Amino acid sequence: MGRVELKGVRKPVIAGTWYPGRPEELRRMISDFLAKVDLEPIPGELVGLVAPHAGYIYSGQVAAYAYKQLEGRPFETVVVVHPSHRMYIDGYALTAAASYETPLGQVPLDGELIAELDEELGFTFLRADQEHSLEIQLPFLQYVLGNFKLVPIMMGDQSLERCRKLASALAKALKGRKALLVASSDLSHFYSYRMALSLDKVVLNYVENYDPEGLAKAIALGKAEACGGGPIVSVMLTSKELGADKAKVLKYANSGDVTGDFGSVVGYMAAAFYS
């Protein structure tokens, strides 16, 4: 399949800490989160989502607002675009495993699509990683979708130029496929509750107005923060190229809403792009 053979299983590194390690407990937690979503399904064709990537006790309820939208909507392939927290990546990377494992089972990678994208993007292939921002999304996807193939893309440089290059390659490769895009991102980190609301509102407004370029510039200028800002912008741009013409913020909250500690919080958003 291209220049790198996908082999082996990428074992979970945050199961039992960031989310439950026992399958029955994990299923129950996700089921409870989804049951509490008080939002009508978006109309039309769903193309992309944004979901947060903190531990489930902090951001799982917000993530459920994104993943609730998948009920009754099958997808063959899911492309998760996520940031790198633990290593420097020049461009784009993915773990060269044949499948990812969580307590809910294994998710196979879409080797054919990865090879096609590699021709355009020149992936750095990793034999091991400790990244949480991809793994945290998988149990929700497994619970709601069941069977699907995965394309996990880790972004290092999150410049607008890199986002445009990724979006162009993804739009070309995904045209005609039954594929879903997911951007994994939290918002501002470790500000007071009031300051977090102010910073995060900037992101919410650019998402609601479906303005990926504006969002990229606001983040670059320090007017807003998102550790997965590049993934959000990339998924917005790709979704547009694939025909999505509407955007909706499904839910916003921050860690203070869960813990009651308003002195230093992290922001979380769920959003959808659709036609």
Protein model, in words:
By secondary structure, this protein is α/β, with parallel strands linked by helices. It has a single domain, classed as Protocatechuate 4,5-dioxygenase, Chain B (3-Layer(aba) Sandwich), CATH 3.40.830. The protein is 39% helix and 24% strand. It contains ten helices and twelve strands. The chain has helices spanning 23-35, 56-67, 111-121, 132-135, 138-145, 160-174, 193-208, 212-220, 229-241, 255-259; strands spanning 9-10, 46-51, 77-83, 92-95, 99-102, 105-108, 124-126, 149-155, 179-184, 189-191, 246-254, 265-274. Strands 2, 3, 4, 7, 8, 9, 10, 11 and 12 form a nine-stranded mixed beta sheet that branches. A three-stranded mixed beta sheet has the order 1-5-6. The chain starts with 8 loop residues before the first strand and ends with a strand.
Helix/strand/pairing category: alpha/beta
Q: Name the average pLDDT.
A: 96
**Uncertain stretches:** none
The CATH topology name reads: Protocatechuate 4,5-dioxygenase, Chain B
Just name the CATH architecture.
3-Layer(aba) Sandwich
Total separate domains = 1
Q: Determine and state the CATH class.
A: Alpha Beta
What name goes with the CATH superfamily?
LigB-like
| Helix and strand pattern | EHEHEEEEHEHHEHEEHHHEHE
**Could you state the oligomeric state of the chains shown?**
single chain
Rounded to the nearest angstrom, the radius of gyration is 17 Å
Characterize the overall form: globular
* Overall number of strands: 12
Please give the count of helices.
10
Query: What is the CA–CA distance across the termini?
Result: 33 Å
Q: Percent range for helical residues?
A: 25-40%
Q: Report strand %.
A: 15-25%
User: Tell me about the biggest sheet?
Assistant: 9 strands, mixed
